[in-house]
Amino acid sequence: MTTTEPPIIALIGAGTIGTAWAVVFAAAGMPVRLYDAETARLPTALDMARARLSDLAAHGLIDGDMDDIMARITPAANLETALAGADHVQENAPEDLDLKRDLLARVAAIAPAGCTIASSTSFIEPSRLFGHVKGRERCLVLHPGNPPFLIRVVEVVPAPFTAPETVARCNALLTRAAMAPIAVNKEVEGFVFNRLQGALLREAYCLVRDGVTTAADIDRIVRDGMGIRLAVTGPFENADLNAQGGIEGHAKRMGPSYARLGAERGQNDPWTDEMVATVAAERRAALPLDRKDARAAWRDRAVMTILRARRGLFD
């Protein structure tokens, strides 16, 4: 892959995620080969890609002509055609370990020696996916938010055997495609996105089970409450801005209460002084306390912008 010529992308699997990846890479000027073992799925995938691009264009979220972007997406009749000359391979098969392992072994045996090979798996660690494949040092997981043409973060998850240059190449590729690479420094099932998402869903299910509230009201409190703030700031920055004394003050006052709530669910993970200090050091490097009020005012204005855009949406 060079910095002047666009990299060639091979997408293996033309379902929802594979088609969304096609939109992302093609919109960024990259030629895309789209392959699926069920070749009858390819026309539907192309129609879906065009519909996604049409929606993005209507909202001013893509640059360039839609027909030019679609022309960069080429259906491939077989795996060999899809992989020929590829710089990057993104596998998007169903979340089945055995299926993925077999498919990735075939891909690694055919793909050019210099290309990176990634899986879009949502939960499976790369060591379990790629431990048996040829040239495994060029392999890793790139887990996107769904759908990636809207949710522009991608978890970059190397295995212990993944070469550092593979990670660097994928970071550069994602940045070129206007995606935000998120470093996952340790293999854990579900990575970061789904662990955070799962924690919220676990508590939500328990609250419904225990008769505390309804599913509809949980959706409402997230959508119209915490979700509005978290669309602008993450959980650490939000706590940092909301509490006197920043994140350390928040942890001191709220930590014991959150520890009791966790203990109700059998979770014993109190916020230790060391944990809080690690997060606080990151926050103070990003935002000194004397700038906190200005940042909170910026957050409030950003929330107002979201509220204005949402006006009438849920009426």
In terms of topology, how is this protein built?
Blueprint lengths: L8 E4 L3 H12 L4 E4 L5 H18 L7 H6 L1 E3 L3 H5 L4 E4 L5 H14 L5 E4 L6 H5 L8 E6 L8 E6 L5 H13 L3 E4 L9 H17 L5 H16 L4 H8 L3 H19 L8 H14 L5 H19 L5
Helix pairs in contact: 1-2, 10-11, 11-12
Please explain how this structure is put together:
- The chain has about 325 residues and is α/β, with parallel strands linked by helices.
- It has two domains: about 10-185, 3-Layer(aba) Sandwich (Rossmann fold), CATH 3.40.50; about 195-310, Orthogonal Bundle (N-(1-d-carboxylethyl)-l-norvaline Dehydrogenase, domain 2), CATH 1.10.1040.
- Helix content is about 55%, strand content about 10%.
- It is built from 13 helices and eight strands.
- It has an eight-stranded mixed beta sheet with strand order 3-2-1-4-5-6-7-8, with helices on both faces.
- Helix 7 links the parallel strand 7 and strand 8 (about 180-185).
